[in-house]
Amino acid sequence: MNTDTPSDTSTDTLYEHPEDLLQEELPPEVVDFLVNVDIPPEVNDYLDSLVNEMRQREAVQAQFVSDVSHEIRTPLTAIRGTAETLLDGDVPPDMSKRFLEQIIDECDRLTRMANDLLTLQRAEATDMDLTRLNLRTLAENCALLMDSMLEERGVNLEIVGEAPDVNGNSDAINQILFNLIENASRYAGEGGTIRVELAGMQDHSVIAVKDTGPGFGDEVPAHLFDRFYRADQSRSREHKSGNSGLGLAIVKALTTAMGGTVEAANLADGGAVFIVALPSLPAED
Q: Given Cys at both, which of 137, 163, 273, 277 links 204, Cβ 3.0 to 4.6 Å?
């Protein structure tokens, strides 16, 4: 077999290093074709877009792994620190009780994070079972389940309006409502109000969750749905509530899986609104 490197080394070839092909013991005519074939510009553009997309996905995955590692490290450090203090002995009973409660709180935080990661993975990796659902019924049921938590935080909840039925997944929509209402309750503050508005708009059924909190300032709305993203003004409150930093990312993933969209905006009179829009179903006879 001819082992001479082909003389055509122009950059307009399919392979950057044609001599590598010779090591595969391909027939000379195949090597000649692959080396000298002219690739249409649109093919090159398509290949470049695929490579860029793969690189972006790799970067997102690497960032996600880094974020998870960081989020897990914080509670583990707290657990280890308090456990070592208890092992050293000579800790007053009241302080021992407080340390043990902290260990339990941090373990609960890790459990919530693990559950949220599993929910996020399922939303992004599997097809959902969809059925006809009424959003008003789901919102009212969710409000009943969250009543004690909202009462403890001193937050009022209102549900107004109606929306056309949707082809959705009840567990997913319940999770969306729970995450948005829970998120709003942390910003509304004691004595604040959360308003869940339902409506139909341009062949879509809309869920708008509004709160009377401070809004999210100059933060880019799209970033609020990134995994582990936290607005600076809310860091201490989110840490105190044990939030995993995945709630809004889950909302986006579940909404997208059902063919919908989600957006966020600051309200002119203060507070924030999160808007979920799902394709509507025709009215039943």
A: 277
